[in-house]
Write a structure and sequence with these properties.
GO molecular function, one term: sulfotransferase activity
Helix content: 25-40%
Pfam family, one: Sulfotransfer_1
Keywords: Glycoprotein, Transferase
Strand content: 15-25%
Distance between the termini: 49 Å
Family: Belongs to the aspartyl/asparaginyl beta-hydroxylase family.
Structural class: alpha/beta
InterPro entries: Asp/Arg/Pro-Hydrxlase (IPR007803), IPNS-like_sf (IPR027443), NST/OST (IPR037359), P-loop_NTPase (IPR027417), Sulfotransferase_dom (IPR000863)
Bound molecules: 3'-phosphate-adenosine-5'-phosphate sulfate
CATH superfamily of the largest domain: Jelly Rolls
Strand order of the largest sheet: 1-10-7-12-5-3-4-13
CATH topology of the largest domain: Jelly Rolls
Largest sheet: 8 strands, mixed
Radius of gyration: 29 Å
């Protein structure tokens, strides 16, 4: 199998060949490419005609009035009969010429230094030099990409979720000349004036070295299907630079004529690649903008000399390093109430990072009495997380999920308040009758390692469920089932039954909101840590029902719940 370098060399050679054989045409002028064509990477749809239909629905076949006659059901649903897809991959619009604009001003603004090899210090610093950008503008670094030697001048940038749009001094300070130089481009795109400019979330100039290929790929990240991607060749030779875009595989890409001043939009969910066989650096302006009405949380003007650091998942201001403490959240229980699932679901979010271990038990059986100060305790606790790495990614969070904390909440909560008062708590609850059986089945099960069995406890092994509950009811009666008010700590309390009733996605969205994470669609909704086992007899169920009744009543009164059935009613009576 070819190494990545060999594969890039292959594509570079192939591109050179295609430069003389592939038609070099400007994309059709079909106007703005609707974001509805960007619902998924084209690659993921190309093998399944049905999936194309599902994703693109009736877009390609709608009548002028927006209705369609495809024989779909009246309620808009589709009965899944084997109808042909309404659009094939080739028909999905991937490139569009939006206009041709004079590049004279922009070209003269950025020409100086665009073609100085990155390894050489320029005779006179220019806007392409990091030294100049880090003094006069904002340096945006992405370690993995910067190694390719592509130079950039960044005017606007945003995070992957388009929560914050950063404006750079060379953009908002009109004296830099950029606003004036790109005016024609923005007007062509319908982005002129203040309202239009506010829809732009990324704008940069990129200078690509000669004899280089960016292999075919599609863009990924939450921003992709929320934005229109525009390229404008500024300094180039369209006969020597091969830019291809379209479809879901290498062979489906079509050549885009990249002549200077052609403002073209591309569907960056489609495969695209570029090879520079020119003997000079190639400069493109690259711009992403959102549809009208898209809500952005904030636009922030960054000061001269600031630095933005980008990783695959995050974008952070260097001056915010260390701003977020670890961990940000604790899932404190209850045992067997879906805590593993909740932890795994949260960690599917691109801005969430798993700890070194899921159940730290730091606040219960790993508690270190010998550590006398909060600082010492925190330093010890941080060893369970990627605390140092996360200092440089304050937009990302991490957490601890130790379900036994709830059982020992009288000891745990004061410790939590002392060591990390900022953490947000998540409590998963479950009908105590079903929870009890699940717990019993786990403890008495033969699966797992010896160490796991030891941690689960040996006391119930060899006893029937009925014998165990008799013992436990006496204990619970003595201890009581509800602890003290935890005071100011921020709680999210959910019942596991809701994950079934309203669906995992809705339940997890509640957790994302609680943690201040932007919405995200979880990819894997499967139940974790589940076990198949026989149920309990009716008599035992009735006995437990009676035992728990007064505690249930107290809990429901406190949380505004009607019962244990999944009804989607969250704490305070709010519906999920
Ligand atoms: N999404 C979803 N829907 C329904 N049920 C779910 C879901 N996720 C987890 N579960 C059930 O939760 C039980 C495991 O809970 P925990 O992970 O908290 O267990 S543990 O305390 O960490 O051992 C375990 O219950 P049992 O199978 O009855 O043992 C899981 O099946």
């Amino acid at each position: 199998m070819a190494t990545p370098k060999e594969e890039i060399d292959r594509q570079h050679g192939e591109a050179k060949r295609l430069l003389s054989t592939m038609p070099n045409l400007g994309p059709p002028e079909i106007g703005e490419i609707s974001l509805s064509y960007k619902v998924a990477p084209l690659e993921s749809l190309q093998t399944k005609a049905g999936a194309v239909k599902e994703a693109w629905g009736n877009i390609g076949d709608s009548n002028d009035d927006g209705s369609n006659d495809d024989g779909g059901n009246d309620d808009g649903s589709n009965d899944g009969n084997s109808k042909e897809p309404l659009m094939s991959i080739d028909e999905i619009p991937c490139t569009s010429t939006r206009g041709i604009v004079d590049m004279t001003k922009l070209k003269s603004l950025v020409r100086a230094g665009h073609d100085t090899p990155i390894t050489k210090s320029p005779a006179k610093p220019t806007m392409w030099d990091e030294a100049m950008a880090s003094k006069e503008n904002v340096l945006v670094t992405r370690r993995s990409h910067d190694a390719w030697g592509i130079k950039k001048i960044v005017l606007m940038f945003c995070d992957d979720f388009i929560q914050t749009i950063y404006e750079m001094p060379w953009w908002y300070d009109e004296a830099s000349g950029f606003k004036e130089a790109v005016r024609g481009i923005l007007e062509t795109l319908g982005l002129g004036g203040e309202g239009g400019e506010k829809r732009i979330c990324r704008m940069l100039l990129a200078s690509m070295p000669p004899d280089m290929t960016i292999p075919f790929h599609h863009d990924t990240g939450e921003w992709v299907n929320k934005t229109h991607r525009v390229h404008v060749p500024v300094i180039t030779d369209h006969t020597k630079v091969l830019f291809r875009c379209g479809g879901g595989s290498e062979g489906q890409m079509k050549r885009v004529k990249c002549d200077e001043g052609r403002v073209f939009e591309m569907n960056n969910q489609a495969k695209h690649a570029v090879s520079n066989h020119w003997d000079s650096y190639r400069v493109h302006l690259i711009l992403d903008y959102v549809d009208e009405g898209f809500k952005v949380n904030e636009r922030v003007r960054l000061g001269k000399g600031e630095e933005l650091v980008q990783t695959r998942r995050s974008i952070d201001r260097k001056k915010d390093y260390g701003k977020r403490e670890t961990p940000s959240y604790l899932i404190i229980g209850a045992q067997k109430a879906g805590t593993t699932s909740m932890y795994e679901y949260i960690n599917q979010h691109p801005l969430s990072v798993k700890g070194r271990r899921r159940e730290t038990h730091f606040f219960d059986w790993r508690w270190q009495d010998n550590l006398k100060t909060k600082k010492e305790q925190k330093e010890f606790y941080d060893k369970f997380f990627f605390a140092n790495e996360l200092k440089q990614c304050p937009s990302c969070l991490t957490g601890d999920s130790t379900p036994s904390y709830l059982l020992h909440s009288d000891i745990v909560i004061p410790r939590v308040k002392d060591v990390c008062p900022w953490v947000k708590l998540i409590v998963m609850l479950r009908n105590p009758i079903d929870r009890a059986l699940s717990h019993y089945r786990m403890v008495t099960s033969d699966d797992g390692t010896d160490a796991q069995k030891k941690i689960r406890g040996m006391a119930w092994r060899g006893l029937t469920f009925e014998q165990v509950i008799e013992m436990e009811m006496v204990e619970m009666e003595k201890k009581g089932l509800m602890g003290e008010d935890a005071g100011e700590q921020e709680f999210l309390i959910m019942k596991m039954e809701d994950m079934k009733a309203v669906g995992v996605q809705k339940a997890v969205e509640k957790a994302f909101k609680h943690l201040g994470l932007p919405d995200y669609k979880v990819q894997d909704e499967g139940a974790k840590n589940s076990r198949a086992y026989d149920g309990m007899n009716e008599e035992t169920r009735e006995k437990l029902k009676e035992f728990y009744a007064r505690w249930d009543e107290k809990l429901f009164g406190l949380l505004g719940w009607a019962g244990w059935d999944g009804d989607g009613i969250s704490i305070g009576g709010e519906r999920l």
